Inverse folding.
């Protein structure tokens, strides 16, 4: 019995229904919509919904997520579902019981069948509700008596693993692409969801998603013009056999690391400014984003730095140790891959430059569009055994893989303790996935969480400062065998955290600097300290 | 016009004609065990004198919100959290919790409005700020975040306050709660809603009263154990508002207070007060047992008996107030349930002497008087009209910028009136030209608004009030423009008419005493009320329920036409509505009309 309301009337009705069901020997589970995971809908058999209507035919506030899921494109087909709806409303309003009607229509569209017709109740709902309740119970009892078989959960044959890889990426549909930071944020972080249903992609938490990004068409056009290749662009279609990229235009678009231009287009040294396609062509590395420039630890705007997909966002990347976009836990959302991305934008020689993959996704990744993706496994970033404790440290988009970790642990009912450190700029706008962590903290899937916001009042606080505050506990966790994960910015955050870790071990363990370094090195060797930095 | 009080009482006093109800029903008051009373009572008792876990909640780094139980306790302190509802959906999709702001009146009071304005003047970029007229909300005086850290504008938004998540402020608040310094009690420490000294013949309120009530609420250590000598661990059943007014202005709407004191002066200044009890605006839709009620004037006290009288009245409410049903817990219902005479007798017996008969007094308006006035000492006050109570920059009216500029040169104080306007107080005569010049430049000087606009109040409503069902503050300017067109047609533009709009039935803008009032039911839908008294002496009545703008304007068009044609000399709109039984003629539309009370 699923109930959604703002005043508690629905909850009361749901409880009394459950009591009545029990009296007839039926068991009913009562769940509030706000706490219900709507993905479970397809597993339900008999669903009774009690929902009230607010505002202009709107669902109750706590049920908005439920409605959004059910009425949205992600809703599954529900052929197995039998349902009945009790709608509460006030007939003096124009949209009387509209929320209930909406669900009724939607369930029907999704292929569910009605156990009993919907009943709409006015302000005096007691009697009507009682009738509905009695009728639904009678039908349920009759079915139970008839030995209604439990339909075996459909077990669709696992789609044959069509081997999608770097060379043969799967074309995923983009189903969500929104900024995930609040207004007034100084960041541009986005959340992108991809539909990878039936892709046959197989992955584990910690794996990365490779994206075959394309260069900005405007930049490609400018490049071709600058290189005097316009004529060949026209001829490109013919030459496909010999030129796998399919002409200069396509080469530039799909393969060249155009963002790595060392000089501005139209700058004084025009000729040298246009690299040949092969010069930084990605074909030599991973297709898509795998350009792997020399690792610059400093910030001067060297040409190679921007296009580096790794320092791009969050996590597009195909370097062996760097997951690209984090992938979601199969049992939670088998059909979706999520990306957390902060576009790289910088100015070089007075020209605006963008990271290839991040800008591709942020600026040209409209919902409904497609994106070629593949799985990049990452054995260096793996969950520990279920009963092991783990400490996860992430800054900015480096928090992304931990969503996958916790989704997996939640699905497996893993018993190990978990502790998350997260750092960003502002609490109000940049607390990435805030409500998800809150829910996991509430459910106990996540045991502890410490956050540091560097641009809020009260001084610049980073994750390593929070770690220092918790030094004794961190050391105790490590001593008890906890695994430690670090994900995020490679240039500053990772070295700082690493240093802090050594300091904590040294201080708390009463070890000298050298022995503390050994301790940490042993953690790494034992794969209890894993990094994914970019 | 001392007759008004009895007239007001007659309109909606529930029957006391049965005389004393003996025995008095004590099934819902403090005499009962707490488990037979409402959940708030247990909450209060277990809260360690209203501390709860507010202090730790304020410092939670994972959420800006405090625990649900603590929000109830915070209300008692006058603190509350709210968020911009316009952004709620967007933030939900972004997997961010609502962008909560925290408001704390004691923090606001600690730094005066003037201080805020000064801080803002130094920190351009801060957003608009406003004051609620609200009986429902504590005063929404904006809080400066302090120039040391820069601007309050770090979190621009319509609702200011302890914006966002400033941990330093939160820590300070939390420390105060740990130390046990709840600032607001069941009783409002706002005690006196003040008018600037000098605009009245004598100060109305007695500072001893606030001191007395506030100190009582803090919980004292007596013989090693913390106690709350007056309120007890469960405090009062609900909020208890005390207001002072100096006739002939009724700008604080004294009849809407739980306990009102009407200052009575003589040749030597303040002599005493007429005492009014049992006012309150709030009602709940579809709950006929809830209703707005005007205070009854029950007698007169000398000024030396002010504190004793307040204590007596509050103790009656403490002992007999309804603690079972929250929406029946205000003093007004205690009075109607027990009978006015009985309550009065209780107060008198606790005072040890009967109240003297009320002295004559006279109100002429519940609005503000705008413009320049001289005060004693030769200083000047200037009252500015602030539409909807919101200082913001709009095309042609850079009010917020103007206030910043004024704050930079103004050497007196800045005060907020109960009608959402501002007073620049204590201006030296030689500063007047400079201030006038700034007012003119920023369009703050006013004077061109219609009389109805100057007598209008809106509650905040959307987007920040969690209870609002319809727009109020943001809607008032446009709606008034349309009503002004009707007034203009009938030559009534110069006629002062009180107009008030609230986003929900709680009545924060004190709508139930306005001549024309709207209370929100749903987006774009309002209940329309007509016929309140011009100086707050009579409740209005609902003439349309749950209707949109077109229907509202239709009713007003008809009403204003008849008013212009049939009114008596000097007759106010509200009085006209009552006299011609305008309401009765409306009852022909079945189902749409219900007399309010």
């Amino acid at each position: 019995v699923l109930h959604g309301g703002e005043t508690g009337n629905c909850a009361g009705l749901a409880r009394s229904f459950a009591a009545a069901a029990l009296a007839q020997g039926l068991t009913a589970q009562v769940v509030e919509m706000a706490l219900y995971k709507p993905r479970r809908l397809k597993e339900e058999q008999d669903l009774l919904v009690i929902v009230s209507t607010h505002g202009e035919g709107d669902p109750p506030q706590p049920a908005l997520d439920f409605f959004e899921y059910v009425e949205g494109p992600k809703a599954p087909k529900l052929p197995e579902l039998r349902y009945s709806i009790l709608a509460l409303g006030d007939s003096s309003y124009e949209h009387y019981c509209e929320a209930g009607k909406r669900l009724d229509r939607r369930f029907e569209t999704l292929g569910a069948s009605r156990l009993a017709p919907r009943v709409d109740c006015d302000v005096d709902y007691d009697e009507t509700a009682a009738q509905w309740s009695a009728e639904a119970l009678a039908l349920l009892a009759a079915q139970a008596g008839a030995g209604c078989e439990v339909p075996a959960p459909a077990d669709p044959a696992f789609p044959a693993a069509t081997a999608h890889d770097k060379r043969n990426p799967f074309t995923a549909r983009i189903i969500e692409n929104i900024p995930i930071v609040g207004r007034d944020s100084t960041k541009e972080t986005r959340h992108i969801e991809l539909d990878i249903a039936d892709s046959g992609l197989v992955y584990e938490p910690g794996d990365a998603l490779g994206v075959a990004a394309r260069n900005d068409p405007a930049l490609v056009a400018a490049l071709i013009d600058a290189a005097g290749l316009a004529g060949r662009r026209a001829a490109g279609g013919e030459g496909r056999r010999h030129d796998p990229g399919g002409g200069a235009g396509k080469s530039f678009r799909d393969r060249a690391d155009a963002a790595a231009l060392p000089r501005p287009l139209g700058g004084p040294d025009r000729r040298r400014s246009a690299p040949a396609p092969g010069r930084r062509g990605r074909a030599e590395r991973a297709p898509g984003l795998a350009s792997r420039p020399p690792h610059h630890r400093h910030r001067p705007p060297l040409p190679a730095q921007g296009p580096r997909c790794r320092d791009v966002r969050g996590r597009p990347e195909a370097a062996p140790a760097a997951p690209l976009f984090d992938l979601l836990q199969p049992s939670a959302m088998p059909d979706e891959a999520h990306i957390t991305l902060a576009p790289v934008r910088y100015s070089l020689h007075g020209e605006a430059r963008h990271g290839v993959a991040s800008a591709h996704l942020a600026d040209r990744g409209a919902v409904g569009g497609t994106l070629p993706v593949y799985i990049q496994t990452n054995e260096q970033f793996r969950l520990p055994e279920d009963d092991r404790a783990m400490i996860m440290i992430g800054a900015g988009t480096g928090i992304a893989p931990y969503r996958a970790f916790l989704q997996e642990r939640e699905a497996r009912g893993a018993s190990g303790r978990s502790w998350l450190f997260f750092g960003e700029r502002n609490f109000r706008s940049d607390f990435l996935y805030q409500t998800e962590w809150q829910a996991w903290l509430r459910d106990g899937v996540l045991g502890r969480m410490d956050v540091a916001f560097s641009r809020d009042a009260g001084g610049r606080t980073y994750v390593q400062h929070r770690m220092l505050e918790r030094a004794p506990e961190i050391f105790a966790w490590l001593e008890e065998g906890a695994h430690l994960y670090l994900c995020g910015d490679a240039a500053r955050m990772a070295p700082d955290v690493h240093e802090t870790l050594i300091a904590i071990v040294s201080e708390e363990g009463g070890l000298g600097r050298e022995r503390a370094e050994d301790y940490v090195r042993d953690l790494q060797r034992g794969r209890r300290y894993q990094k994914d930095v970019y | 016009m001392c007759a008004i009080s009895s007239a007001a009482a007659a309109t909606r006093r529930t029957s006391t004609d049965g005389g004393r109800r003996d025995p008095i029903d004590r099934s819902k008051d403090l005499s009962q065990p707490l488990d037979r009373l409402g959940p708030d009572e247990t909450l209060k008792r277990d809260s360690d004198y209203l501390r709860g876990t507010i202090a730790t909640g304020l410092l939670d780094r994972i959420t800006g919100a405090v625990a649900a139980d603590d929000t109830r306790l915070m209300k008692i302190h006058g603190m509350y959290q709210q968020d911009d509802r316009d952004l709620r959906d967007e933030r939900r999709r972004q997997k961010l919790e609502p962008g909560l702001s925290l408001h704390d009146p004691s923090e606001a009071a600690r730094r005066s409005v003037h201080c805020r304005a000064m801080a803002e003047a130094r920190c351009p970029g801060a957003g608009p700020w406003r004051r609620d007229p609200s009986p429902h909300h504590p005063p929404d005086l904006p809080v400066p975040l302090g120039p040391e850290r820069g601007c309050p504008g770090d979190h621009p938004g319509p609702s200011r306050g302890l914006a966002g998540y400033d941990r330093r402020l939160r820590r300070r608040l939390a420390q105060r709660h740990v130390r046990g310094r709840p600032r607001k009690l069941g009783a409002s420490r706002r005690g006196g809603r003040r008018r600037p000294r000098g605009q009245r013949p004598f100060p109305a309120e007695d500072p001893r009263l606030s001191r007395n009530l506030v100190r009582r609420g803090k919980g004292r250590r007596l013989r090693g154990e913390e106690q709350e000598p007056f309120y007890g661990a469960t405090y009062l059943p609900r909020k208890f508002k005390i207001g002072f007014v100096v006739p002939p202005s009724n700008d604080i709407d004294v009849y809407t207070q739980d306990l009102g004191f009407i200052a009575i002066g003589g040749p030597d200044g303040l002599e005493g007060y007429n005492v009014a009890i049992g006012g309150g605006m709030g009602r709940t839709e579809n709950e006929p047992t809830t209703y707005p009620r005007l205070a009854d004037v029950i007698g007169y006290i000398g000024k030396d008996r002010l504190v004793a009288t307040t204590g007596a009245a509050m103790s009656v409410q403490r002992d007999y107030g309804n603690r079972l049903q929250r929406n029946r817990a205000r003093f007004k219902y205690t009075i109607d349930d027990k009978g006015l005479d009985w309550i009065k007798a209780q107060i008198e017996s606790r005072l040890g002497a009967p109240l003297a008969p009320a002295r004559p007094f006279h109100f002429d308006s519940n609005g503000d008087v705008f413009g320049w006035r001289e005060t004693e000492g030769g200083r000047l006050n200037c009252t500015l009209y602030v539409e909807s109570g919101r200082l913001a920059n709009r095309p042609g009216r850079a009010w917020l910028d103007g206030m910043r500029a004024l704050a930079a040169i103004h050497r007196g104080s800045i005060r907020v009136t109960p009608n959402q306007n501002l007073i620049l107080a204590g201006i030296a005569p030689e500063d007047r030209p400079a201030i006038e010049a700034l007012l003119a430049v920023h369009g703050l000087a006013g004077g061109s608004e219609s009389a109805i606009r100057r007598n209008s109040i809106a509650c905040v409503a959307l987007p920040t009030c969690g209870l609002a069902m319809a727009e109020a503050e943001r809607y008032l300017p446009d709606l008034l423009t349309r009503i002004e067109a009707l007034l203009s047609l009938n030559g009534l533009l110069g006629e002062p008419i009180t107009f008030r709009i609230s986003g929900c039935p709680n009545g924060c803008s004190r709508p139930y005493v306005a001549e024309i009032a709207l209370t929100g039911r749903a987006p774009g839908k309002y209940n329309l009320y007509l016929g309140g008294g011009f100086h707050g002496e009579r409740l209005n009545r609902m003439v349309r329920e749950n209707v949109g703008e077109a229907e509202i304007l239709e009713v007003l068009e008809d009403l204003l036409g008849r008013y212009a044609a049939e009114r008596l000399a000097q007759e106010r709109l509200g009085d006209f509505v009552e006299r011609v039984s305008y309401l009765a003629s409306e009852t022909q539309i079945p189902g749409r009309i219900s007399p309010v009370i």
Q: What stands out?
A: The interface with chain A takes residues 61-64, 87, 89-97, 99, 145, 149, 154-156, 164-168, 286, 469, 522-523, 545-546 of chain B (CB under 8 Å). The longest strand of chain B covers residues 269-277. Chain B is about 30% helix and 15% strand. The radius of gyration of chain B is 24 Å.
